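Let us work through a complete example step by step.
Step 1: write down the sequence.
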Amino acid sequence: MKEFPVMDPREGIPILYPHVPSNAGKYIEEVLSTRWIGQGPKVNQFEDEFSKKIVENGYSVAVNSGTSALHLAYILAGVTEASEVICPLFTCTATNIPILYLDAVPVFTDISKSSLNIDIDEVETLITSKTVAVCVVDYGGLPNDYIRLREICDKYGLRLIVDCAHAVDTYRNGHHVTHYADYVIYSFQAIKTMTTGDGGMLIVKSLSDYENAKRLRWFGIDRASKQKGVWKNDVTEVGFKYQMTDITAAIGLASLEELNEIFQKRRCLYQIYQSCLEEFGDLLLEKSDSGSDFTPWLVTLNTKGKRLALMNHLREKNIESAQVHYRNDQYTIFQDYAQRSFPNMDKIEDHYLVLPLHTKLKPEHVERICDEVKKALR
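Step 2: predict the structure and record it as tokens.
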């Protein structure tokens, strides 16, 4: 396994830390010496390489953020004013805010009893004549049950959108998430498993969605026609300034070179967490079942009433911890869509806590963190 630069534990252990690939500076310098620093050939190359390395089924469209990718996914899925989208209650607001961009209605789903992913048993009960799509998040990288979700969406004629901001190599029963979903988005924000500084990727299944997405990310303009040098193309739809730049894509290409080692390092560290904390039973909340395979982005604990005490103890030992994400119904912008109870979320809300996980950590860092967790929770 490739050895990445590590931190000095005397300086403290941060909860998240960017993984800047070793060739990033070199590739950026190469881009800066060309005529293309905005969207150019590196973006095309990054899309191609990402498809080859990650995508099982679909076309890759690079954009400037995971949020932009989600906005385009909702548009392509047919979400319009007053449409309903079944979506996670517990996620980054970036999952659900683009629904509001379209004057559509987010219909929140409670979390599962066994993880922080959605409660799939609840999804079918929320479907109405206005439901257009189901959007789910693989919290911490842990895959949802895509076989069941695909069956539900097919039964009711809904589009399945997967927010993989926490995940990259997510598999269910041997198939990548792109095998099951209609649209998949990735976030390459600074502290994600794979980063481009900031950026995102949208995966679509059809050639028509691919062409539409490329226009929508650039003001609704067909760039290939425009670059012919004569003004014969029209703009017939409202697009956005969501394109990725070659500078960003250069970092992405460098990241792809190290991705397997990143996966291996993160999985190894997570296994140490599992081994060191196994005496507490169901303490860890990102636990895979026999049908799933994934690389964790977060390590989340059920502190069982001791969150504040654990946070304070870790802070004294110069170890960061945090909640990271919050239930979306508590934000003012979602108050109109939060008029029901969410018992599973209520049960865990005051207990979950995220611990450090990133490539700057060494096994001994994780062992030290676990030792301090044990002291605080016993």
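Step 3: interpret the result. Residues 259-377 form a domain with the Aspartate Aminotransferase, domain 1 fold (CATH 3.90.1150.10).
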